[in-house]
Amino acid sequence: MNYFVTGIDTDSGKTLVSAILCEALNADYWKPVQAGLPLDRETVKGLVSNPSTVFHDEQYFLKLPASPHAAAKLEDIRIEMDCFELPRTERTVIIEGAGGCLVPLNQENFVIEIAERFNSEIVLVADLYLGSINHTLLSVSELRRRGLPLKGIIFNGERNPQSEEIILHHADVRCLLRIEKEKEINRQIVRSYADKLLLTWNA
Q1: What is the pTM of this model?
Q2: Strand, helix or coil for residue 12
Q3: pLDDT tens for residues 129-153?
Q4: Closest to 155 measured CA to CA, from 40, 47, 25, 13
């Protein structure tokens, strides 16, 4: 089983969560579409300490840090769903999306369709801010509408117990992990969260 990491907004914490998943599951990492620098692949590589993870190159690298459909248009590139090919590996692959579920790749396709293409289970990352309940439940609703399997939610950042409780109640999905607002993110922090994640992953 491969896992697709998506978020409720652009800065939800998908890259950090991807690193934690790679560390916990000894999985490979792949971001199919990268728009702008720095490369999330390099960020994850700097946070993962296990020696087995392979960091696969992007299918599309776009220079502008913008929505993939807009960044691609500026470079006269069309992102094609049929061009996406899962990296060849025997291990689980953590696939990091770009932005949220309905970020457009082109005029017809959305980022979440990459998860559909590879029959991936979804890990949804939710940071907590004013409006995040709505954004999280809308994301869950869209995943369910598409019939995509949702492994669970990872909350990232400063805690808001009331928001977390109402999200989990209405989403009817497990909380896999809570990531605190850390002063520094490094390999030791990622390893500690990977250990915590393993306690709930198959619960």
Answers
A1: 0.97
A2: coil
A3: 999 999 999 999 999 999 999 999 9
A4: 13
Would you state the structure tokens that stand for residue 91, as one six-digit string? 């291990």
Contact at 8 Å (CB) between 137 and 170?
Answer: yes
Domain 3-201 belongs to what topology?
Answer: Rossmann fold (3.40.50)
Q: The tokens of 39 are what? A: 């490369």
* Tens digits of residue pLDDT in 65-74: 999 999 999 9
Which positions ≥6 away from 193 have C-beta within 8 Å?
A: 20, 177, 179
Nearest Cα neighbor of 54 from 83, 22, 77 is: 22
Beta pairing partners, 14: none
Q: Are 56 and 46 in contact (CB under 8 A)?
A: no
DSSP 82: G
Which one of 14, 31, 45, 183 is the catalytic residue?
31
Residues listed for the chain? 203
Is there a catalytic annotation at residue 31?
yes
SS3 61: strand
3-state SS, residue 179: strand
> What would the pLDDT profile of 12-38 be if each residue is shown by its tens digit?
999 999 999 999 999 999 999 999 999
Nearest 5°: phi and psi at 124? Answer: -100, 125
How big is the CA angle at 75 (ends 71 and 79), to the nearest 5 degrees?
65
Do the Cβ atoms of 93 and 29 come closer than 8 Å? yes
- The two three-digit tokens of residue 51, written as one number: 């020696």
